[in-house]
Amino acid sequence: MRGPAIDERYFDKLAQTVIDGQEEECLRVIHEGLNNGMDPLEAVEKGLAKGINKVGNDFAEEIVFLPELVMAADVMKAGMKILDEKIKAEGKERKSLGKIVIGTVKGDIHDIGKSVVAAVLQANGFDVIDLGMDVEPDAFIQTVVDNDADCLGMSTLLTLTLSVMGETIKKMEEKGLREKVKVIVGGCPVTQEFGDEVGADAVGFDSKDGLTKVSELLSV
Amino acid sequence: MKGFTGKLVGSLYPITEEECKQIHKSAVRVLEEGGMRCDDERAAKMFERAGCRIEQDGKLIKFSEKIIMEAFDKCPGNFKLHGRHDPELDINIGHDEVHFATVTGRYIEDFRTGERRQATRQDAIEGTRIGDALENVHGLYKSVMWIYDEPKICNSQILVAEQMKNTNKTSTWVYNTGAEHEIPDLIKIWGIAAGGAEALKERPHLIGHVIANPPRVVDVNYTSWLIGFCDAGIPVTVYSALMGGATGPATLAGMLVQIMAETLALVVQVQTYKPGHPLAFCSFNPSMDMRTGLWSFGNPEYGTVGTGIAAMARRYGVPCVGFCICDSCDTDQQTSYEKALKLYNYALSGIALTWDIGGMAGFNFVTWPEMVLENEVASFIGQYLKGIRVDEARMAVDEILQVGPLPGSYLNRRHTRDWYRKEFLIPELSNRDFFESWERGHTELQEKAKHKAAKILETQESPVKPEIQKEIDDYLDFVVKRDVG
Predict the structure, then answer these.
(1) DSSP reduced 3-state for B77
(2) A160 touches B at CB < 8 Å
(3) CATH 3.20.20.480 spans which residues of chain B?
(4) C-beta of residue A47 within 8 angstroms of C-beta of residue A56
């Protein structure tokens, strides 16, 4: 039985799964496409990235809002996991605007604000590695090193855990990473003064501000 | 246009059912014992035909409860105001749907220059265009009270013509200049806008105001308008324009009794002249500011009496509409609290249509950015009116069980995506910035409103068919030549 043609319409279908937040359908389309000779790099560029960019633009225009954005980012992430493995296996490399490791610092389990920032960054073309919450300084640093990341984003909602940000930045300095890796911090108690004090490159006050600052830091 | 609905519409009663009966009995007593002074022979004949007791050679009319209640038997419980040539713009004037309309002012602040000045013909056009574009504006009052750069004698005709040329939304009319040809001219223009006199009767697109002159007078001007509106098939409001402490008592219950007495007299008058003609009660009940003698619209008493009129209307089985104006002379915090509180109370009491959007300073001042801002206030009120809707899908028990405990989140859930737009208000202009972000830079609300108003005026074209605009212009030419030469 002949499979579907892998053409623009097929990639549009893949993009639409991201726009609609349909993870199962996205994975089905990816598997079906790969089984029918779909180029994984093309699938990212013309399918997943096109979909997430549309959602990102619609988010900026206030046509869609966070639920659509976060769901799209989740679908993108699930799809990318399969496609990245395939790209790696084929010895190819995918380009991105920059690689950002992000997480909520140790001692804090507030996840949502950070996840929103991750989704906004992802929707605007950045590769985001989200470590979730309660992240140890060493885990941040190891992930940055392992993934050759361009930027580290740390978040907290609690005043008590603010110190973890400074601790992490200090450890990055000790390991000689600060020249290469930009650091942005954010969360409700984080002020510009605090960011300056701990040596962060920028403070993101909300998701859109975070996107602006990361784009500036990485000269995008 | 679908108005705002929800379980809270009509939920506010400032008086109990028993108190409604007391107000009714008292109003009837006023009409039985004191009656209404009647300044118009045509009106006296109408009341005579209704069976009222005529005294003082037709100058004093006394009413029985039977006559009053027979008049209510003829009143429709609800009716429609129609969009011109567009059924999507129809609005239901009844008890379960709330609508908002623009209101007027003599002065305007030009949002481009900041200049406060008397209104012009161009302002009348722009105000109509803005009202036409705003999604929570279901109807329009005249955009400006008078056009100061046009002759007084045909001011009303020009005002109405410009409105009819620039929107198809429903409108309203209150006696304006008293010029000789005002009534037939306006009815002619409304007819042209509707597609002819018969079309106006079949699909009336405005509501006209018939007002008693307080205390207790049926006057000539409003009798003329009553006849004009009824003959043209235009639904009417009937009300008293009393001012508490001056032309009405200085107690809220007393104001309500007199308002009801005068309103009931007009109900009899309308239903005698044209049985079955659609009518609505109306709230326009300022009180006197005892420091200055000026009428005050922004006071809580106005809003409270207004909701009392709505409660009485519900009891009689007729709809209620109303005016919601503030005293503040600027687009400031006072405007916000005076109008928002009253408007919300009106919506809760089920007032079907409120003229409110854009006007300040007791019909003296209007701005387009304020119109834009109040369009947003209307969306907030519409959201409040919904109340909490309880059903299986909304209670979301399965969702709660699946997501929690932490670290689960609802943000990336299908249920959230499916419901948030239906259950949450996402305002267009209101600020919800993070404090630091806002501190570092933001656009003030007034600026956002100005920007939106400017954008509407740059992009909004008249939805009115060119041939109708031309016919209106042709008639207006005739009027101007006749009246001005």
Answers:
(1) coil
(2) no
(3) 74-386
(4) no
Q: State how far the Cα of A43 lies from the Cα of A51, in Å rounded to an integer.
A: 11
Q: How many CB pairs under 8 A join A and B?
A: 43
Identify the CATH number of the domain in which residue A107 sits.
3.40.50.280
**H or E element in which residue B118 lies:** strand B116-118
Answer yes or no: do A125 and A207 share one domain.
Answer: yes
Q: Residue B273 forms beta bridges with which residues?
A: none
Count: domains in chain A: 2
Q: A165, exposed or middle or buried, with CB in 10 Å at 0-12, 13-18, 19+?
A: buried
The residues near B476 (Cβ < 8 Å, ≥ 6 apart) are B154, B157, B158, B161, B189
What element of type H or E holds B466? helix B466-483
Domain that holds residue A36: 8-89
One domain for residues A143 and A41 = no
d(CA B174, CA B159): 12
Tens of each residue's pLDDT in chain B, 485 residues: 999 999 999 999 899 999 999 999 999 999 999 999 999 999 999 999 999 999 999 999 999 999 999 999 999 999 999 999 999 999 999 999 999 999 999 999 999 999 999 999 999 999 999 999 999 999 999 999 999 999 999 999 999 999 999 999 999 999 878 889 999 999 999 999 999 999 999 999 999 999 999 999 999 999 999 999 999 999 999 999 999 999 999 999 999 999 999 999 999 999 999 999 999 999 999 999 999 999 999 999 999 999 999 999 999 999 999 999 999 999 999 999 999 999 999 999 999 999 999 999 999 999 999 999 999 999 999 999 999 999 999 999 999 999 999 878 899 899 999 999 999 999 999 999 888 888 889 999 999 999 999 999 999 999 999 999 999 999 999 999 999 98
Closest residue in B to A206 (Cα) is B434
Complex confidence, ipTM: 0.84
- A201 touching B (Cβ < 8 Å): no
Burial of residue B405, with CB atoms counted within 10 A of its CB: 0-12 exposed, 13-18 middle, 19 or more buried: exposed
Cα of A98 vs its chain's centroid, Å:
9
- Between CA B90 and CA B139 the distance in angstroms is 9
Question: For an interface test with A, which of B412, B417, B434, B439 has the most A Cβ atoms less than 10 Å from its Cβ?
Answer: B412
Q: Which residues contact A63 (CB under 8 A, 6 or more apart)?
A: none
CB-CB under 8 Å, A132 with B417: no
The reply to whether A105 and A186 lie within a common domain is: yes
A3 part of a folded domain: no
Asked if the Cβ–Cβ distance from A115 to B409 is below 8 Å, we say yes
**Residues on chain B touching A112 (C-beta within 8 angstroms):** 409, 411
Asked if the Cβ–Cβ distance from A205 to B440 is below 8 Å, we say yes
**Nearest CB partner across the interface for A65, out of B406, B409, B426:** B426
Q: Scanning the structure block, which residue is given the tokens 């003296």?
A: B364
Claim to verify: residue A118 and residue A153 sit in the same structural domain: yes
Asked whether the beta carbons of residue B409 and residue A111 sit closer than 8 angstroms, the reply is yes
Closest Cβ–Cβ partner in B417, B420, B433 for A21: B417
Which residue in the set B413, B416, B437 is minimally distant from A209, CB to CB?
A: B437
B412·A112 Cβ contact <8 A = no
Q: Match 């609690």 to its residue by tokens.
A: A158
CATH match of B74-386 with 3.30.230.70: no
Q: Are residues A139 and A195 in the same domain?
A: yes
Asked if B441 reaches chain A (Cβ–Cβ under 8 Å), the answer is no
